[in-house]
TrEMBL record:
Alphabetical UniProt keywords: Membrane, Transmembrane, Transmembrane helix
Name of the featured protein: Membrane protein
One matching Pfam family: Phage_holin_4_2
Keyword Transmembrane assigned: yes
InterPro entries: Phage_holin_4_2
The keyword NAD is assigned to this record: no
Transmembrane segments: 28-46, 53-81, 93-110
Classification via PANTHER family: SLR0284 PROTEIN
Amino acid sequence: MKTLISIFFTAVFVVLLAYFMPGVRVNSFFTAIIVALVLGLLNIFIKPILVLFTLPVTIFTLGLFLLVINAIIVLLCAQLVDGFEIADFWRALLFSLVLSFCQSLVASLSEK
């Protein structure tokens, strides 16, 4: 049940970010749910591989390269999901930062 709630809130945040951020477009709430699912799957399966391959760069940048990996995951999701578009890398980076912040805020509020 907790996973379904997390997917729902992620979809809501995707819709809100697409509304407020120029260069980010999502067609419908159903598309946002698909985006939330694909982002979750990419974070489970692809992100650890990217982190492993870029470990020296991540250590050298004191972990800041993980933000680039998050942006790459968002761009990959935009390529995989029809109806979800991100204009460029910098918007993907900002989108991933704000989405991560919103997700962590909801997670911290749900633990109390």
